[in-house]
Specification:
By secondary structure, this protein is an alpha/beta fold. The chain contains seven helices and eight strands.
Length: about 270
């Protein structure tokens, strides 16, 4: 990225401005922080402190949609709702969907009261789904245990859980709690794994509207390949699940970044 001349002048003389390359890194970091902050403000306008969180980042996913967000949320909170049988097939790589093929394919949107709920969750990610739904009381709209897809043209996928908050206040409390849990587990994580919290939008296929969601994922760390990732992802999942069990979304709570001093924008 090449900085505009007026920005290079603004950075000149600042402690970060040691070399041109470092100027550009600082500028790019500020831009990314601004994008992350705006994403937080749009998702949780009544809780602006989320804009300073350095754990939850704007990380849109494509595709990312379900048939009917409103109906799904209503069914999730109604154990007496009808739960018709659904098609569940498992691919040779462990992907569970309606057709039993690797990659992104249609899958039914189930809730914990559905008789096939446990069967529909891929084994490697079940512990994370259980703590987030049972202990934290949240709605999950998606989950994946991660797949290597060796000997195919498909790229590997990471382990993740998608969270669909019922309200903006639940979104804010969840983002803060995830930040606290993720920050606390960093020292215990295998070197090949980083835990990410992504802010994204979920599209409703029936209405065309979008809803702010949060994605919790285990990603390969810089300098580590997918083979190493899959060797240690189960142990990393155990660490993360343990720290999630020690936390809860709390109204009025704060994220782990709230006590860090914010170094404001560079002055002219």
């Amino acid at each position: 990225m090449q900085l505009p001349r007026h920005v290079r002048r603004r950075l000149r003389g600042h402690p970060l401005a040691l070399r041109p390359a470092e100027d550009e890194d600082a500028y790019c970091d500020y831009r990314m922080r601004m994008i992350d902050g705006i994403a937080a403000l749009l998702a949780q306008p009544a809780h602006p402190t989320g804009a300073w969180c350095r754990t939850a980042r704007w990380c849109p996913r494509q595709p990312n949609s379900i048939r009917d967000v409103t109906a799904f949320l209503a069914r999730w909170d109604n154990a007496d709702a009808p739960h018709p049988a659904v098609r569940l097939h498992t691919s040779a790589y462990g992907s569970i969907n309606t057709v039993g093929l690797p990659g992104i394919h249609e899958a039914d949107d189930l809730d914990p009261a559905h008789p096939q709920w446990h069967e529909a969750i891929e084994p490697g990610v079940r512990s994370l789904v259980e703590v987030l739904t049972r202990d934290w009381g949240l709605v999950t709209y998606d989950s994946c245990e991660g797949h290597s897809y060796t000997e195919t043209e498909l790229p590997p996928t990471a382990r993740r859980v998608g969270l669909l908050p019922r309200s903006r206040s639940e979104y804010a409390a969840t983002a803060d709690a995830l930040c606290r849990a993720v920050t606390a587990c960093v020292a215990e994580m295998p070197a090949a794994i980083v835990v990410g919290v992504g802010r994204a939008e979920l599209a409703c296929e029936s209405s065309g509207r979008t809803t702010s969601v949060l994605d919790l994922s285990l990603q390969p760390a810089a300098g580590h390949g997918w083979p190493t990732y899959f060797d240690v992802v189960d142990s990393a999942t155990d660490v993360l699940a343990a720290h999630l069990r020690r936390e809860r979304p709390i109204t009025g709570g704060r994220c782990a970044c709230s006590t860090r001093q914010f170094s404001g924008p560079v002055s002219a």
